[in-house]
Amino acid sequence: MATKDLRINRQIRAKEVFVIDSDGSQRGVMSTFDAIRMADDEGLDLVEVSPMANPPVCRILNFGKYRYEQEKRLRDAKKNQTVTKLKEIRMQPKIEKHDIDTKSKFIGEFIEDGNKVKISIRFHGREMAHPELGEQALQKILETLTQNKVEYNLDRPPVMEGRMMSILISPRSSKGGKPASAPKQAPKKSEGAPAVTEATAEKPNK
Question: How many Å apart are CA 17 and CA 122, to the nearest integer?
């Protein structure tokens, strides 16, 4: 229960409560009035920590200090959480060397930040007849990442999604996925492949 939802002192509605004193000793059931007076005599607060118990359980403590410690614990827990996002980089099959270097730089930054990256090739018109161009572009990207010492897993080999061919990579430290390698096999048709649901980062071609 969040500290803002806790009832303290005269906010407590029950007539009787089970009291745990400031030393952690169980003082048993007593009237709420007597429990508040006991806490007040110590310069502390009576805090209802288990309102659903019968009778409710209350502790005698410094509520300001208790609230600070609880909020700090919550902040620390959030800092330790690893939030993985899915980023996307899009490009054309006929991509120039300087564009490969630029795209690879962005991808490397995403991977180092702990994000997965979907690398997509968009085909136009007659380019659809040459899927090997997309494979070659993806292979050049992966080779450049390897040269730049970016550690990643190849989670999904080349897959066609309409006019898009894409691969999915993730940080090497992530569980699952295959060791990084350039795509060797022909792309597979995707049946009802899901769309990207996370934040998409697209960098324009020059």
Answer: 67
Q: What is the pLDDT of residue 32?
A: 94
Hey, which bits of the chain come out as E strands? 16-20, 26-31, 45-50, 57-61, 86-91, 116-122, 152-161, 164-171, 178-179, 188-189
What's the predicted TM-score (pTM) here?
0.49
> Mind listing the pLDDT tens digit for each residue in 56-83?
999 999 999 988 888 888 888 877 766 7
Q: Are 170 and 116 in contact (CB under 8 A)?
A: yes
Kindly report the CA angle at 137 between 131 and 142, in degrees rounded to 5? 130
The answer to whether residue 119 scores a pLDDT higher than 70 is yes
For residues 183 and 190, give the distance between their C-alpha atoms in angstroms, rounded to a whole number: 16
Q: Which residues pair with 160 in a beta bridge?
A: 165, 189
Identify any residues that bridge with 89 across adjacent strands, giving them in sequence order.
119
What sign for the dihedral angle of Cα 181, 187, 193, 196?
positive
Stretch 183-190: mean pLDDT: 47
Contacts of 133 (CB under 8 A, 6+ apart): 93, 94, 121, 127
Residue 33 and residue 12: Cα distance in Å, rounded?
10
